[in-house]
Amino acid sequence: MQENRVSRWYFGGVSASAAACLTHPLDLIKVHLQTQQEVRERMIGMAANVVRREGYLALYTGLSASICRQMTYSLSRFAIYETVRDEMNRKHNGLMPFYQKVLLGAFGGFVGGFIGTPADLVNVRMQNDVKLQVELRRNYAHALDGLLRVWKEEGMRKLFSGASVASSRGALVSVGQLSCYDQSKQLVLATGYLTDSILTHFLASVFAGGCATILCQPLDVVKTRLMNSKLEYGGVFHCLREMARLGPEAFYKGLVPAAIRLIPHTVFTFIFLEQLRQHFGTVVVT
pTM of the entire structure? Predict the structure, then answer.
């Protein structure tokens, strides 16, 4: 008999939160680029302006909301995906086929995206605050303050503004990250050249991060605009129409910083997750 370790249900949320602490400045710059009405600044220029106006710590504005988002959104999707996947693998004494991983990843991501929408909304607003004029800033003290103020000032419904887009984006990201990571790791191990090591985790997560970036970028831009809007858009379709007038490139605004942010975040998340699994995971005898 062989002993294997599987992840505990909360490892995904912990790993994603740790990764968010390292990649948060990139996420902040991505939000700033996506909320520009016209392309006026690029990634480096935007970062330089934030630092010049507010200082280096401004690059970590909204970190509490980012962690709150990961502990709702990522924790939910990882918990659903890994718990069901491990149970299916155990029952059928084998690995799930790729199409089942895609379906499971999409379902877990959709549910996680919906659960994480309130924290995501506050995250976007807090990150975007530093580029607004002082009198226009919302000035949330932290994630909980932001959630409570949105609820009191704008109503419960506003907390789930853009939930349909966030859920759809979550489904696409999870297909790119979870399903593609699992499949690419499986294929790398099947070659026999590499073992279940950090190098394997790194290669598989880079591929998964690239897939996730390409799949979700259009919806990510729409989600960001809806969450940051002050009644400029009447809904998802209104936002889509307005963006379509700007041309196809509007849907991939901030693609490079999105990739620069999402790929490292994916890599760090899975490296942390695999280390937690190997050292603290539940032992399963096969």
Answer: 0.84
